Amino acid sequence: MKSCCVKRCALWALILLLCRMPVRAVAQEDLLPLDIAILEDPMDLLRLVNRDNLLDKRYPDQSEACYKLERVNLPVTRGKHLLRAVANDALEALFAAAKAEEIELYVGSAYRAYRNQEVIYYNRVKRLGYDDGYSQMAGASEHQTGLAVDVVSGDYKRVFEVEFGETREGVWLRENCARFGFILRYPQDKEDITGIRYEPWHLRYVGEEAAAYIMDNGLTLEEFSAARIRTLGAYYGDAQAMNDDAQLRWQLAAQDAQQGDS
Ligand SMILES: [Zn+2]
């Protein structure tokens, strides 16, 4: 059987399953108070990437306009960097706001292709003799999304250290990043959830509404994603009860099938 047929069968099986599933009661406090249009994430800004949710080596598809990567024209520690346009614009606004408060920032790293990450991970593990958790295996790095960026101050240009988080620049980043749609992706004391050590320099673009909610509530993207799935499930469940949402259920099933693919 061709793989597209298998996919189509899996999709229909999922749709049938969704139609038969009883509507599960979810407590209101477990749901996100955000617009469904944001949680549906048509721009793929909320994509969860970690060791359990790997990206395909072709991601992000450059034939699709919304994934187009563009050059970052901001001060850098070294090299040239790319970001998805939506994150690049937001980062420019963040740097301008920082500069207005006499805070000087530098881009350390932004988009990283699957193949580059493969080499970085291999070299680090080979050099250390073990995986110290600071470098991600290919497909598991947020940098592949084109929505993640490492930002540091002049003093931390050469070596990224956790002490950066307590500098004036590090504190400013943590307190202001959400205004521009970024979150601190690997917060302190959440290593057990993210599986990644505290990185006060690693920002991830998720959009302003989601960023505000995540930062205000001290969440990780893992926790937010679990709540997002619950909220979408409850929403589609309700819509199902109203029996007028064939199109919405189709979208949810298609999204699930796609996620299982990556
Ligand atoms: Zn990073």
Shape: globular
Mean pLDDT, all residues: 85
Q: How big a fraction of the residues is strand?
A: 5-15%
CATH architecture: 2-Layer Sandwich
Q: How would you spell out the order of helices and strands? A: HHEEHEHEHEHEHHH
The CATH topology is Muramoyl-pentapeptide Carboxypeptidase, domain 2
Distinct ligands, ions and cofactors found in the model: zinc ion
Total separate domains: 1
CATH class identity: Alpha Beta
In spatial order, strands of the major sheet run 3-4-6-5
User: End-to-end span in angstroms?
Assistant: 20 Å
Question: Which value, in Å, is the CA radius of gyration?
Answer: 20 Å
Structural class: alpha+beta
Task: Please estimate the helix content.
Answer: 40-55%
Features:
6 strands; two-stranded antiparallel ribbon; Muramoyl-pentapeptide Carboxypeptidase, domain 2; disordered C terminus; alpha+beta; disordered N terminus; globular; 8% strand; 262 residues; 9 helices; binds zinc ion; 4-stranded antiparallel sheet
Structure overview:
This protein is of the alpha+beta class and 262 residues long. It has a single domain (35-234), classed as Muramoyl-pentapeptide Carboxypeptidase, domain 2, CATH 3.30.1380.10. 43% of the residues lie in helices and 8% in strands. It has helices spanning 3-20, 36-39, 85-100, 114-128, 168-176, 191-194, 208-216, 221-241, 246-261, and strands at residues 69-71, 82-84, 106-109, 148-152, 182-184, 202-205. The strands form two sheets. The protein has a four-stranded antiparallel beta sheet with strand order 3-4-6-5. Strands 1-2 form a two-stranded antiparallel ribbon. Helix 1 crosses helix 9 (246-261). It is globular and about 50 Å long. The chain binds zinc ion. Zinc ion is lined by residues 109, 143, 148, 150, 202.
